[in-house]
Amino acid sequence: MHSAMAARNKVSVALLLLLCAGACVALARPSEFSIVGYSEEDLASHDKLMELFEKFVAKYRKAYSSFEEKLRRFEVFKDNLKHIDDENKRVTSYWLGLNEFADLTHDEFKAAYLGLAPARNDDDEDRSSAFRYEDVDMAGVPREVDWRKKGAVTEVKNQGQCGSCWAFSTVAAVEGINAIVTGNLTALSEQELIDCDTDGNNGCNGGLMDYAFSYIAANGGLHTEDSYPYLMEEGTCRRSPQGDDDEAAAVTISGYEDVPRNNEQALLKALAHQPVSVAIEASGRNFQFYSGGVFDGPCDTRLDHGVTAVGYGTAMRGHDYIIVKNSWGAQWGEKGYIRMRRGTGKHDGLCGLYKMASYPTKTA
């Protein structure tokens, strides 16, 4: 009985401290997070940690169902912060930082923010054999490419807690080739793919980019984001099966091709000509909290996330990288992007980057 009362008192005191910390933050002058979201001073005491947590809650507009839940999230936050700080003392080419995922356990994060589904066949049966850039001479490939600077990449988007990464990867690649061919950069609808592309893809429960390219080519194109906006959940398909929609599809493609597997040069050849959909393993804890620099792991090659390669280059330290557009919002990573190390000597690339790459084709 006495121990139960003591435990309740301990929780009450902790909750009171959290409330007090929140009040202090509200009264203090606003201050920006550092590049990693915390300072060594923040780690010095329990009170400083609670104050940092309240800043985090305010910055990302977090709301919890109860004080007990808030206390639990504070404990998760502390554990994540310890991991971030420990890793920042160890890694040298990149750094981790606090972001909106800092109050999630690693399992919660993996369950909510990925979404690449396994292929129907685990071999090359479903992959196209054509590769139009096969005969491109590597000597003529630029040393660096950034399709953002060439006007072929829309703003970073946010899939939210819906396993729709495959749709965002697909759309970014289609937006890219359309801009290159037509000169018009148009934001397209991921929601249409989530709602309507059900042949192999499964909405917020995962999908594959190749299946989505096939859907777009077979169904007369894709609508704009404005005409078919993102809901962060599955909805009813608003596209007429007869193709007589009130508003015609804005962008069409001819088809798609796969980049030869486990071939860095082939990926660079394709990237020199257009953005490319790629699959990676993004479930690692360091990937979750990546904040900047050239990421070099640790990660495995069990593909679980669809993203879009939009260029490549070399950092000042001499590290070669691929520029990858993610779909976790502009506050993650380098304004929504990550630079992933290339030239690692790994057959299938860092995090499996070379295992499943493909791009849409467009003739006019």
From TrEMBL:
<dbReference type="InterPro" id="IPR000668">
    <property type="entry name" value="Peptidase_C1A_C"/>
</dbReference>
<feature type="domain" description="Cathepsin propeptide inhibitor">
    <location>
        <begin position="53"/>
        <end position="109"/>
    </location>
</feature>
<keyword id="KW-0378">Hydrolase</keyword>
<keyword id="KW-0325">Glycoprotein</keyword>
<feature type="signal peptide">
    <location>
        <begin position="1"/>
        <end position="28"/>
    </location>
</feature>
<dbReference type="InterPro" id="IPR038765">
    <property type="entry name" value="Papain-like_cys_pep_sf"/>
</dbReference>
<keyword id="KW-0645">Protease</keyword>
<keyword id="KW-0732">Signal</keyword>
<keyword id="KW-1003">Cell membrane</keyword>
<dbReference type="InterPro" id="IPR039417">
    <property type="entry name" value="Peptidase_C1A_papain-like"/>
</dbReference>
<dbReference type="Pfam" id="PF00112">
    <property type="entry name" value="Peptidase_C1"/>
</dbReference>
<dbReference type="GO" id="GO:0005773">
    <property type="term" value="C:vacuole"/>
</dbReference>
<dbReference type="GO" id="GO:0008234">
    <property type="term" value="F:cysteine-type peptidase activity"/>
</dbReference>
<feature type="domain" description="Peptidase C1A papain C-terminal">
    <location>
        <begin position="141"/>
        <end position="361"/>
    </location>
</feature>
<dbReference type="InterPro" id="IPR025660">
    <property type="entry name" value="Pept_his_AS"/>
</dbReference>
<dbReference type="GO" id="GO:0010623">
    <property type="term" value="P:programmed cell death involved in cell development"/>
</dbReference>
<dbReference type="InterPro" id="IPR013128">
    <property type="entry name" value="Peptidase_C1A"/>
</dbReference>
<protein>
    <submittedName>
        <fullName>Uncharacterized protein</fullName>
    </submittedName>
</protein>
<dbReference type="InterPro" id="IPR025661">
    <property type="entry name" value="Pept_asp_AS"/>
</dbReference>
<comment type="similarity">
    <text>Belongs to the peptidase C1 family.</text>
</comment>
<keyword id="KW-1015">Disulfide bond</keyword>
<dbReference type="InterPro" id="IPR013201">
    <property type="entry name" value="Prot_inhib_I29"/>
</dbReference>
<dbReference type="GO" id="GO:0005886">
    <property type="term" value="C:plasma membrane"/>
</dbReference>
<keyword id="KW-0926">Vacuole</keyword>
<keyword id="KW-0472">Membrane</keyword>
<dbReference type="InterPro" id="IPR000169">
    <property type="entry name" value="Pept_cys_AS"/>
</dbReference>
<dbReference type="Pfam" id="PF08246">
    <property type="entry name" value="Inhibitor_I29"/>
</dbReference>
<dbReference type="GO" id="GO:0006508">
    <property type="term" value="P:proteolysis"/>
</dbReference>
